[in-house]
Design goal:
Length: about 375
């Protein structure tokens, strides 16, 4: 399969409005800044379309089915357990193709932005008057990759898992900060039962908050809010190597090498009629990580061999930009990014000068550990 326009991203297209910037070796804690506002700074990803509730997703103009797409990136994959996936690369791969959550993001070509729509839930959730309770009803007919039906109890177990900062230290702590009992519950692996923050009635789960949380629909789009089967099937030591798929693609058995590579194949139990946002055009995605920047750029510049069906979501190197502009302009994609490249001031005063100096600490995006401002 040859891509219609082999793509090289100038900046990563961020699916998640407040995810950490991905890459192996990041030293960030994974916990967001203390704030009563989930979306911080700008409007990236803040738009919603609650009316887009029915599948299948609208067809993509010119898209053809079949073939293999190769993906290469300079970053590794920190963890692929949905509860802990809080980096742009891990979260985007899981949310975009593998796991379905209460809500999801889709790309809006009119605004060049990501828009929040329903996913497993039939809507964007129903809050009470002061946003201390949220009710979500799951669609019928959702199954895991092995054909096992998804239930509201699986969402409840995912919520329980999302509190565990010991087993999943790099995961986001929004459940701890906003959900009822978030200041005391430590997760299902501590022998303390469930969080006591939700009730289940058939396909409907109602989540209780410790304080108003109007941005629950955005937290609902993270992989941590995807269904996870209770019991041995989701043992953390094993589940991070092969999370059960509910999306259009699943981990190929034996196809994941942590930090290095991942192969995704079609999930036979994904039903497009239940999914208003995703597609299943490609037969297989072969992903290679921790690839040197020079190799990434030169592979895409070549426009032959592997470049015929290869893409990257990395920034191109500054030194290669002019060459891309002259040789591959039609294959550059400029997208939004939830990460920040910056110059940090260095204020120490020398004996001979009282002026501040600038330290060149600009980071190559999206590999920075800095979270969105």
């Amino acid at each position: 399969m040859r891509l219609k326009k082999p793509m090289i991203a100038v900046t990563a297209v961020g699916l998640l409005a407040a995810a950490a910037c991905g890459g192996s070796g990041d030293s960030g804690s994974g916990n967001p800044a203390n704030s009563d506002t989930f979306i911080q700074g700008g409007q990236a990803g803040a738009g919603t379309d609650p009316t887009r509730t029915e599948g299948p997703a609208p067809a993509i103009d010119g898209a053809q089915s079949g073939g293999t797409v190769k993906v290469i990136s300079v970053a590794g994959l920190n963890t692929m357990d949905p509860t802990e996936a809080y980096y742009v690369n891990t979260s985007s791969i899981l949310s975009g193709m593998v796991v379905r959550s209460l809500t999801q993001y889709v790309y809006d070509p009119k605004t060049n932005d990501m828009v929040l729509i329903p996913d497993l839930a039939t809507d964007l959730g129903t809050p009470n008057a002061n946003y201390t309770s949220w009710k979500f009803t799951l669609r019928d007919g959702i199954k895991y990759e092995n054909g096992q039906p998804v239930t509201a109890k699986d969402i409840g177990f995912a919520i329980d898992r999302s509190f565990d900062r010991s087993t999943f230290p790099e995961g986001a702590n929004y459940s701890n900060a906003y959900f009822k009992n978030g200041d005391s519950y430590e997760g299902p692996y501590k022998g303390s039962g469930t969080c006591g923050c939700y009730t289940i009635d058939g396909n409907t789960i109602t989540i209780k908050m410790a304080k108003p949380f109007p941005d629950m629909p955005y937290w609902g789009a993270f992989p941590a809010m995807s269904p996870i089967p209770p019991g041995k099937a989701s043992d953390p030591s094993k589940y991070k190597l092969h999370p059960w798929s509910t999306g259009p693609y699943m981990f190929k058995p034996g196809g994941y090498v942590p930090e290095k590579s991942l192969v995704l194949v079609k999930n036979p139990n994904w039903d497009p009629a239940t999914d208003p946002g995703r597609h299943q055009y490609v037969d297989e995605y072969d992903m290679e990580f921790d690839v040197p920047t020079a190799k990434v750029d030169q592979t895409l510049l070549a426009d032959n061999g592997d470049a015929q069906n290869t893409l990257t979501y990395d920034n191109i190197a500054v030194g290669d930009y002019v060459q891309f502009k002259t040789q591959a302009q039609d294959r550059l994609v400029i997208g939004s990014a939830p990460c920040t490249a910056y110059w940090a001031p260095d204020y120490p005063r020398s004996p001979t000068s009282r002026s501040a100096r600038l330290s060149p600490t600009r980071t190559r995006m999206p590999m920075s550990t800095r979270r969105p401002d």
